[in-house]
TrEMBL record:
<dbReference type="Pfam" id="PF00126">
    <property type="entry name" value="HTH_1"/>
</dbReference>
<dbReference type="InterPro" id="IPR036390">
    <property type="entry name" value="WH_DNA-bd_sf"/>
</dbReference>
<comment type="similarity">
    <text>Belongs to the LysR transcriptional regulatory family.</text>
</comment>
<dbReference type="InterPro" id="IPR050950">
    <property type="entry name" value="HTH-type_LysR_regulators"/>
</dbReference>
<dbReference type="Pfam" id="PF03466">
    <property type="entry name" value="LysR_substrate"/>
</dbReference>
<dbReference type="InterPro" id="IPR005119">
    <property type="entry name" value="LysR_subst-bd"/>
</dbReference>
<keyword id="KW-0238">DNA-binding</keyword>
<dbReference type="GO" id="GO:0003700">
    <property type="term" value="F:DNA-binding transcription factor activity"/>
</dbReference>
<protein>
    <submittedName>
        <fullName>LysR family transcriptional regulator</fullName>
    </submittedName>
</protein>
<dbReference type="InterPro" id="IPR036388">
    <property type="entry name" value="WH-like_DNA-bd_sf"/>
</dbReference>
<keyword id="KW-0804">Transcription</keyword>
<keyword id="KW-0805">Transcription regulation</keyword>
<dbReference type="GO" id="GO:0003677">
    <property type="term" value="F:DNA binding"/>
</dbReference>
<dbReference type="GO" id="GO:0005829">
    <property type="term" value="C:cytosol"/>
</dbReference>
<dbReference type="InterPro" id="IPR000847">
    <property type="entry name" value="LysR_HTH_N"/>
</dbReference>
<feature type="domain" description="HTH lysR-type">
    <location>
        <begin position="5"/>
        <end position="62"/>
    </location>
</feature>
Length: 299
C-alpha cells in the first residue's frame, strides 16, 4: 500500500496555514524549524505536488495547498470527533463546553442559562468567557471556545463558521438622571446627543453599531462622553451621573431595572446568534446546550 502522510504531518501543515510562517508554525508544534521543514517536504513528496511556495521573500500556500488544506482539516477533525465520542460513551471523559459571549452583551442572561442547564445535566461542565468579537472568532477558529454568542450581521468573514439566530435585542436609551426627557415619548437621536453618552471602546462591535446609528448626525454634533468596557459599568455610571447609554432592554430587565430608560424613535434591534466552528468534535454536546438555551429563550 502506498505510504500516506502521518497525522503529525497533517497537523504541521494546518499549523503552517494558521501561522503563515515556518518558524512560528514549528514553535507551535514544539519542534525545530529544520524538523518542521523536513515534515513539509515529506508531505509534498507523499501527496505528489508542491503545497507551499518558498522564496527569499517568504512562503505561502500554492493553489494545490489551498485545495489540500480543507481535506487535511477534515481528517483531523473527524479523528478528534471519533475519539471524543468514544471517550464520552465509555464514561472516560466528562462533556466540557467552553462558551464565549460578546462583552458588550453582558453575561447575566447566559449565567441563568448555564445554571438551569447544569441542574438538568449535572454531568456537563461549562466555562463562560466574556470577550470581544475578534478575540471570540480567533478562539473559535483555534478551538479554545466551542460556541460564541454574538450580534449579527457584522463585517467579519464568517465563511468558516455556522450561525443560528436566537433572538433580537431591542436597544434602548438608559438615562435615569436626565430629567428633561418626556417619559411617555420615544427619544430622538437629537435628544440623545444633547447629553453625554457613555460609549464602548472603538474596537468593540457595539462601537461600530453606534457609529452607524448616529451616522446622520453631523461630525460637530456627534455624541460625546466616557468610554466604558461593559454594560454593567455603563448602567452604574448612568445611575450616578447625568449621562445616557445605549443598552439592551433585555439586559436591563435581567438587572431588575424597569424605569429610567426610553424607547428609540429610530429603532435599533440587534440579532443575537450562536456561532460555532464547522466540524467541531464536540458537536453532540454543543447541540444539547444550544437546544436548551433556545427552549429557555423562547419559553
Amino acid at each position: 500500500m502506498k505510504e500516506l502522510p502521518t497525522l503529525q504531518e497533517l497537523q504541521s501543515f494546518i499549523a503552517y496555514n494558521k501561522m503563515g510562517n515556518f518558524t512560528l508554525a514549528a514553535q507551535s508544534m514544539n519542534i525545530t524549524q529544520s524538523a518542521f521543514s523536513a515534515q513539509m517536504k515529506k508531505l509534498e513528496r507523499l501527496v505528489g505536488v508542491k503545497l507551499i511556495a518558498r522564496s527569499t521573500r517568504g512562503s505561502c500556500l500554492t493553489q494545490e495547498g489551498e485545495r489540500f488544506l480543507p481535506e487535511a482539516e477534515h481528517i483531523i477533525e473527524s479523528l478528534e470527533r471519533a475519539v471524543h465520542t468514544i471517550r464520552l460513551s465509555s464514561k472516560l471523559e466528562r462533556p466540557v463546553l467552553n462558551v464565549g459571549i460578546l462583552r458588550s452583551m453582558g453575561d447575566i442572561r447566559l449565567n441563568s442559562f448555564v445554571a438551569h442547564f447544569s441542574g438538568d445535566n449535572p454531568d456537563f461542565s461549562i466555562s463562560v468567557f466574556d470577550m470581544e468579537e475578534e478575540e471570540m472568532l480567533l478562539d473559535l477558529r483555534e478551538n479554545r471556545i466551542d460556541i460564541g454568542f454574538v450580534y449579527l450581521p457584522n463585517n467579519k468573514d464568517m465563511s468558516m463558521y455556522e450561525s443560528v439566530a436566537l433572538r433580537d435585542d431591542n436597544i434602548v436609551y438608559y438615562a435615569p438622571l436626565i430629567t428633561n426627557l418626556p417619559a411617555d415619548q420615544k427619544v430622538t437621536i437629537r435628544q440623545i446627543v444633547e447629553s453625554p453618552l457613555v460609549a464602548y471602546p472603538p474596537k468593540y462591535f457595539m462601537s461600530r453599531a453606534m457609529r452607524s446609528y448616529f451616522s446622520e448626525v453631523s461630525q460637530h454634533d456627534k455624541p460625546h462622553g466616557s468610554r466604558l468596557s461593559n454594560p454593567y459599568a455603563m448602567v452604574d455610571y448612568c445611575k450616578k451621573n447625568k449621562a445616557g447609554a445605549m443598552v439592551s432592554k433585555r439586559f436591563l430587565a435581567e438587572l431588575g431595572i424597569t424605569e429610567g430608560y426610553y424607547e428609540l424613535q429610530k429603532p435599533l434591534n440587534l440579532q443575537v446568534c450562536f456561532v460555532y466552528r464547522k466540524g467541531n468534535s464536540k458537536w453532540e454536546t454543543m447541540k444539547i446546550f444550544m437546544e436548551h438555551v433556545t427552549r429557555q429563550t423562547l419559553g
